[in-house]
Amino acid sequence: MDAHLAWTPGGGRRELAKAVRAAIREGRWRPGAVVPSTRALAHDLGVARGTVTRVYADLAAEGYLHTSQGAPTRVATAGTEPLAAPGPAGRGERRWRWTMMPGRPDPGLFPRTAWLAATRRVLQHTANSSFDYGDPRGSVVLRNTLAAYLARSRGVRVDPARVVISSGYGQGLVAVCAALRQLGIAETAFEDPSVNRFHELAESAGQRVVGVPVDGDGLVVERLASPSVVVTAAHQSPTGVTLAPRRRTALVRTGAVIVEDDYDGEFRYDRHQVGALQALAPERVVYGGSASKTLSPSLRLGWLVLPRSLVDPVVAALTHTGGPPPTINQLALADLISSGGYDRHVRRCRTEYRSRRDRLVAALPPGLPPPGIPAGLHLLLSLSPATEAMVPAIARRHSLELATVSPHRFDPDGPSGIVIGYAASTRPAFGGALDALLAVLDDLPWDR
Ligand SMILES: Cc1ncc(COP(=O)(O)O)c(C=O)c1O
């Protein structure tokens, strides 16, 4: 092993022991690693072998080293064992056999072959400059490719100079909130309910966060009083409704800065997708998207299309929060989109998720309220607050990972129920997850 020690010759035994302790504490001598033999270290440092032997013995007594008869001396591992690798199902230690978590795509559908081919093409052809620090706005190639893709697929009005790449939508939202704060906007409204992770991210960027109710037509725009607002207009998360056309117009007329979280716009099953709200007012709307639903959240690939006035402040804020994701992944995504592989993959996923949604809706008990439009990767099953409160314990009993609405709402009297994510399990596990869900529903009282 590399035995670098911050030690000055002539320092004596005590100094040598201090240097070895520091190397272990700072992780340069890693837990479990075999340490240099006393002979080799004594030779390297120009000290008597006996000095090293005594230092090792002292450090073994202190618990830094582990010695045992006939085996090499190692750095002790007590309390510093490597983290256990996740099982085949991923996400660390799995406590659940089945999952119906919203917000996650089927990890088994990740297009490994197409991604590998795209990465290989990128590595074969890209310039050496791709391995340097990248452009803080993200790769020009991906920004150009996304500009064309978003115009074609989502009707976004987009000039590549206004596209920036972020580490997922989450980092993009933080940067937008920080930039707005700098420009004097310190309150952001969110739909009530909406994903609480994003409320926390906005708060972390200095925004005061408030909720605005959602009804069957989406955000109740007349209740909006904040200078900025985040909306999931195409498919409200989690209620599943679409922002009605007259509300879209009313919203852009409020003059608020609108952040449009287009998190699952590619997944609409009954008819053509609702186009992006951004097209109505490109100078008022920040359009945000990500590859977290279409490909994988692990890629941390997200994008923003910004009003011109926000480009520089948002890029500055992105730089302060770590900058864009790895250039090679950005280029692989650009390659996948321009080769047609991305569209093919999204179509394949759309077919799969649509059939799961149909199976799920057909299996649900009759007489429930409509679960939102046929779109996205989740649906909301409304329940009374008292029934919702029983869900976590019952779901645990059936080893089903399941989300409820109440952690995501502002108004304690707002909607309640279960948010069923039908994409999260792998294809072979979907039947088991659905059975587990139906068993959970069966165990709930029927006054819901
Ligand atoms: C409403 C909503 N928006 C956006 C995202 C994507 O976030 P990110 O790109 O940070 O993974 C998610 C993912 O769960 C989501 O549920």
TrEMBL record:
Keyword terms: Aminotransferase, DNA-binding, Pyridoxal phosphate, Transcription, Transcription regulation, Transferase
UniProt-listed InterPro entries: Aminotransferase_I/II_large, HTH_trans_reg/aminotransferase, PyrdxlP-dep_Trfase, PyrdxlP-dep_Trfase_major, Tscrpt_reg_HTH_GntR, WH-like_DNA-bd_sf, WH_DNA-bd_sf
Short name of any one Pfam family annotated for the protein: GntR
Chain ranges of the HTH gntR-type domain: 10-78
PROSITE patterns, per database record: HTH_GNTR
Molecular function as annotated in GO: transaminase activity
Superkingdom of this protein's organism: Bacteria
PANTHER family on file: HTH-TYPE TRANSCRIPTIONAL REGULATORY PROTEIN GABR
Family: In the C-terminal section; belongs to the class-I pyridoxal-phosphate-dependent aminotransferase family.
Name by which UniProt lists this protein: PLP-dependent aminotransferase family protein
Organism, scientific name: Pseudonocardia eucalypti
Lineage, opening ranks: Bacteria, Bacillati, Actinomycetota, Actinomycetes, Pseudonocardiales
